[in-house]
Amino acid sequence: MSTKRLVRRTVFDSFIFGYLIMVTLTVALQPSSEQMLKLGQNTLIFLATMFLGALLSAALNKSKNPSLHTLGEKLFGSAGTVHHHETVSYRSFANWQLGIFFLVTFVVGVVVTRFSFSELLNEDGFEGAVRLFKGLGNPNFDILPRAVLNIIETIFMAFVATALSVPFAFVLSFFCAKNVMKGPWAYSLYLLLRTFLNFTRAIEALIWAIIFSVWVGIGPFAGMLALWVHSMASLAKQYSEMVESVSEGPIEGILSTGATPLQTVWFAIVPQVLLPYISFTVYRWDINVRMATIIGLVGGGGIGTMLIQYQGQAMWPEVGCIILVIAVVVWGMDQASAIIREALK
Amino acid sequence: MSESILSIKNLVKTYPNGVKALNGISFDIQKGEFVVVIGLSGSGKSTLLRCLNRLHDPTSGQIIFQGQDVAQVQGEEVRTLRKNIGMIFQHFNLIPRHSVLSNVLMGRLGSISNLQSIFGMFSQQDKEQALKYLKLVGIAEKANLRADQLSGGQQQRVAIARALMQEPAILLADEPVASLDPATCHVVMDYLRKVNQELGVTVICNLHFLSLVRQYATRVIALKEGRIIYQGRPQEITDEWFAKIYGQEAKDVHVN
Predict the structure, then answer these.
(1) Any CB–CB contact under 8 A between B89 and chain A?
(2) For B68-84, how does the pLDDT look when each residue is reduced to its tens digit (9 = 90+)?
(3) Which of the residues A45, A305, B191, B233 has an alpha carbon 20 to 30 A from that of A63?
(4) Does A208 share its domain with A63?
């Protein structure tokens, strides 16, 4: 078995075993909240349990009996070998491992989210919700003209953000494609850009909106900038995956004519990725319209900002009208982008 | 005998994964020859051709072409080399979404600047040349169709026209008929012979079918496990040699 597979199997198994031991310890010892907050110490304990888990995994997988093998072995184990010997499912260790892991996680999840039927059926709370729904069900169309103007602002915000992100993402995508960036220097640049874009994408558009609303002030400009940064990183990633999946044949064909690297990208790769690029871009605009609505909630301008103002004053009929407008536009964009993408295939 | 155009000395290619594709190959090619390289899949035929125009970098050895060791050239010189050696492929390697004419014009990429090519600024002269070569391979009337609307054999002829646009001294053909039906095979092979005889372009061609080899080659080189095991005139390949090249089990398949 290759080292890579071995590492993956060990990490996977030891995480599950370590996690199960940690949960058992927590339930058995009932640590105080003060003890729970000692991050360094708890991390050490977790690492120790993971180490135990790694030992357990190694011991189990040494066994000749395949029904004793762990889930990690089943997932990452030796490539290509199909286990023909069928074992009864409840006799397989891996199945028990998966089942217990899932069950424990579900129970812990219910506890952590403070799931409570009494809250859900509380009379006061329920009446509040009914009042809200009544308001939403009787939208106040007096504010419709302003809502329409605001959603137009949102659509344009999404459009400009998408349009501005395309040229940057287009150029970046080739520098982020493994099959284009060959050679040690090119590969280092590839890794650097990939890391940078992953980092940028890891920060949600909502967070970018908060950053930019401090930077350039609350309003559609901040929202547009936030969407632009996020779209650029997302599109560059999607585009570069397309570049990585192009067929090599045309690249060889163009290279053999004595073409420069730029000519090779332009004539051999671009024709192969153009349609998927357009398709991704249309979809991104669609996503951006939805995101722009949410971003408006934190001061990104457009319909979202309007929504949060009425919501703050508990003016539910007005909120109902705004939600209706958003729903119609999002539905329309969704349909349009699906139809356009279908046509591009 | 005419002058030698290509001289290969002790060529070795080891891939990064440790596979030794070429194991010390040496031979000369004379101007105007139609050399066919035969051998099983994995015998190193494709690697050999790709080393000649530096689509792959040889590990060691010499390739003397036009007085230069092309195994050593770098950067701009690699592109000049590729320009002077045309190549066609098993899967044609055209750009499907471009027109036939535009595909042929791409043969000029090695001669024009980045800016010119990106804006599609091919000269009138180039366009006339492209049409001339399309006429030569008998598909001038398809010039404005999209390349992917053509049949396999037609696409391979477009690929030949593209290679000819480079005004190459040598034309490499990597299994040019392996994905074509038998009838079309001969059409494509006939055009390759035409290019060889009428334009005087030296052809080095990888082939599978021995019957085609006997018909078209002026000389045969047989590879096995990265070494030359036979060199000579195609008529001289006996059944005994055939069994050596392709293994005892093999049978000669006739294509007509």
Answers:
(1) yes
(2) 899 899 888 999 999 99
(3) A45
(4) no
Question: CB–CB of B82 and A266 under 8 A?
Answer: no
| A172 plus A212 within the same structural domain | yes
CATH code where residue A327 lies: 1.10.3720.10
**pLDDT over 70 percentage in chain A:** 96
User: Mutating which of A187, A248, A256 best tests the B interface, going by the most B Cβ atoms within 10 A?
Assistant: A256
**Chains A, B: CB pairs < 8 Å:** 84
Determine, for residues A253 and B96 on separate chains, whether the beta-carbon distance falls below 8 Å.
no
Reading the block at residue A111, the tokens are 């506890």
**B155 inside 8 A of chain A by CB:** no
Q: Are A39 and A165 found together in one domain? A: no
C-alpha distances out from residue B80 to A70, A212, B70, B165, Å: 57, 50, 10, 14
Q: Please give the residue of chain A at the shortest CA–CA distance from B75.
A: A260
Together in a domain, A85 and A153: no
For residue A80, pLDDT beyond 50: no
On whether both A330 and A189 belong to a single domain, the answer is yes
Query: Exposure pattern of A162-189 as b/e (b: 16+ CB <10 Å)?
Result: bebbbebbbebbbbbbeebbeeeeeeee
Which residues of A make CB contacts under 8 Å with B?
Answer: 249-250, 252-260, 262-263, 266-268, 271-272, 274
Q: How far apart are the CA of B50 and the nearest CA of chain A, in angstroms? A: 9
Say which of A249, A254, A256 has its CB closest to residue B91.
Answer: A249
Does residue A131 belong to any structural domain of this protein? no
In a domain, A125, yes or no: no
| DSSP labels, B149-188 | GS-HHHHHHHHHHHHHHT--SEEEEESTTTTS-HHHHHHH
Q: Across chain B, what does the average pLDDT equal?
A: 90
Q: Identify the domain containing residue A94 by its residue range.
A: 3-115
Chain A contact for B116 (CB, 8 A cutoff): no
| Distance of residue A204 Cα from the nearest chain B Cα, in angstroms | 36
Last residue in a domain, options A115, A150, A184: A115
Domain-embedded: residue A123: no
- Give CA–CA dist A217/A199, Å, rounded: 24
Residues A154 and A110 grouped into a single domain? no
Which one of B90, B95, B115 makes the best mutation probe of the A interface by having the most chain A beta carbons within 10 Å?
B95
Asked if ipTM goes beyond 0.95, one says no
Of all residues in chain B, the percent with pLDDT exceeding 70 is: 96
Q: How many domains does the structure of chain A reveal?
A: 2
Average pLDDT for residues B185-203, to the nearest whole number? 94
**Nearest residue of A to residue B167, measured between CA atoms:** A257
Instruction: Answer for the pair B11, B24: CB distance below 8 angstroms, yes or no.
Output: yes
Write out chain B residues lying below 8 Å of A270, CB-based. Answer: none
Residue tagged 């002790």 (tokens): B10
Return the ∠ at Cα A279 (arms to A273 and A280), rounded to 5°: 85
Chain A residues in contact with B109 (beta carbon < 8 A): 254, 257-260, 263, 267
- In a domain, residue A130? The reply is no
H and E: helices and strands count for chain B: 9, 10
